[in-house]
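REQUEST ID: PR-0412
SUBMITTED BY: lab tech R.K.
PRIORITY: routine
TASK: structure prediction, single protein chain
INPUT:
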Amino acid sequence: MNRKELNPDSSPQAAFGARLRSLREGHGWKQEDLAERMGYSSTHISAVETGRKIPTLRFSRSADRAFGTEGTTDTFERQWREIKHGSLLEGFPEFVGHEGRAAEIRLYEVGVIPGLLQTQGYAAALAKSAVRRGMITAEQAEERVSLISERQAVLRRTPPPLVLAVLDESCLRRPVGEPAVMDAQLARLIGFANLPNTIFQVAPFTMGTDRPFDLPVTILTLANRSLVSYAESAQRGHLEGECTSVLPLMTAYHQLQAGALSQSASVALVEQLRKGTP
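STATUS: complete
OUTPUT:
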């Protein structure tokens, strides 16, 4: 039988197929065996493995059940969403994969609450605005909101990562959605600050030029203690794993934390805003 060689680096779809084949063969299953477990034909399995057919959400969830990968940080469903997220910046799906396995997550955001801390209402309001401006379709907006919910599962992981979030004051003062949406979002930040594995700080406007970052940045510490940074431009996301590039960002992040409000003062500011106090 002719066996098509797979190149998982050629596309997310190819990576999905190559992983499906690898796990199937690792279990000692033929395509017919996996097909029976998943409720598909062997022809369908072959077409997905070789990239001739794009997997669906139902197929991906069925694969997770067959291989016992449901509820893990590396599901077939996650890979399927990477294929579907054509509206996301280049580099972002790869970043999300690292984020889901990180031991420590350091966030700095300007103007908007970061995805890991967003409520569904806040995320939906941002996505709806992007649709109204013609930036994405309604279907892509739904995918964005769904992805945010999936990413937040990392906060409930066992053991959970240490998450340090520094938000520019503009994140708190920029209204998003109806007042009730913004109030719920601010309440979420207070709840986040009360978690045992989090540190929450606000970088006030008074920091001025002492603020070391002008743009959002995320720094991940992986399980092997290596560092990865992620930042975005208007055109693409940039994932960086070279220590010579990431270590200066870590130093700058420490400087940011030193100049930001303490966690208690940050929570007090959020509470003031919820009460309508300037």
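NOTES: The domain at 12-84 is CATH 1.10.260.40 (434 Repressor (Amino-terminal Domain)).
REVIEWED BY: pending
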